[in-house]
Specification:
- By secondary structure, the chain is α/β, with parallel strands linked by helices.
- It is built from ten helices and eight strands.
- Helix 3 links the parallel strand 4 and strand 5.
Length: 298
């Protein structure tokens, strides 16, 4: 029996992946959710804006697992805030927490439950890379202390939509850096765990822009097919979900030295992330500072 723990599996590419997992014999899916889970999934409540809720979710997973281990940890949930003013109950910027910090805490707490040869996948975005020329402003840095508390950042963006976009892209940069740091942890190395950053690319038809202005939100969710015909770099929800499902099921074998899986024109490719994402000093500082924010040892 293969056991998969997942977030972000109730809509968009995550729902496609979750249904693929559920259709696979001898596979068990534990899904953290605030909404309705697909039939067959074991649903556990999870609000990623609350770090205490993440800890409760981990307790619930441990209770459900019993003596079993986790074969795949798929951390896919995320959202784009309407501005940079949102704060979680812990006092941190919302986009940074939902897209990165809550998942950092979750994976740190569940590391001891990973099976030998397990897969860990964290969903990132091409918005982290200035060379991708996406619609969102690219990150300036990956300083967790400033991303968590942007009021302290001397270069903080004033315009709300710009601040929101940069908070999102910065969190996705942190995700890739965390993937690189996680792969170096002795426990991960000893268990031969595969750690990947998964970029589904721009994918109309998902709920990513649920907090965007109404026109943009409706166009993104409803007009996916038309948008894909107009913009060739856009991917289908079905392709993005199928690739994520294949990763969860252990059917993807990354080339040697590759950890950034990116969907481009519906095909899974292996790319180099941005220059900043490959900076070892930035990686190590982020891992250390993130641990401090969630009261863990580095």
């Amino acid at each position: 029996m293969r056991t998969i723990v997942m977030t972000g599996g109730t809509s968009g590419i995550g729902e496609v992946a979750a249904r693929q997992v559920l259709a696979t014999p001898d596979t068990r899916l534990l899904l953290g959710t605030r909404g309705q889970a697909p039939d067959g999934a074991e649903s556990l409540p999870l609000d990623l804006t609350r770090l205490a809720d993440v800890r409760s979710f981990v307790d619930g997973v441990n209770d459900r697992l019993g003596t079993s281990e986790i074969d795949a940890l798929v951390l896919n949930a995320g959202e784009n805030q309407p501005n940079g003013d949102g704060r979680t109950p812990d006092g941190f910027e919302t986009s940074f927490v939902v897209n990165y910090l809550a998942h950092y805490l979750l994976l740190r707490l569940l590391l001891p439950r990973l099976a030998d040869g397990a897969v860990v996948s964290l969903t990132t975005s091409g918005t982290h890379d200035p060379e991708e020329n996406t619609m969102l402003p690219p990150p300036r840095h990956a300083d967790a202390t400033l991303l968590a508390r942007p009021d302290r950042d001397p270069e903080r963006d004033v315009e709300p939509r710009v601040a929101a976009g940069r908070a999102y892209s910065s969190a996705k940069l942190c995700t890739i850096l965390a993937v690189r740091a996680l792969a170096l942890q002795p426990e991960v190395v000893a268990k031969n765990v595969t750690v990947l950053a998964y970029d589904p690319g721009p994918t109309p038809g998902t709920g990513l822009l649920r907090n965007a202005p109404a026109v943009a939100n409706v166009a993104w969710r409803v007009l996916g097919g038309l948008l894909r015909r107009m913009v060739r770099r856009y991917n289908s929800k079905e392709a993005g979900g199928a690739h994520l499902g294949a990763i969860a099921l252990g059917r993807v074998n990354p080339p040697a030295g590759r950890y950034y899986a990116a969907v481009r024109r519906d095909a899974l490719t292996w790319l180099e992330p941005s220059k900043l994402a490959r900076d070892d000093k930035v990686r190590d500082a982020l891992w250390r500072d993130s641990a401090s924010l969630v009261d863990l040892q580095p």
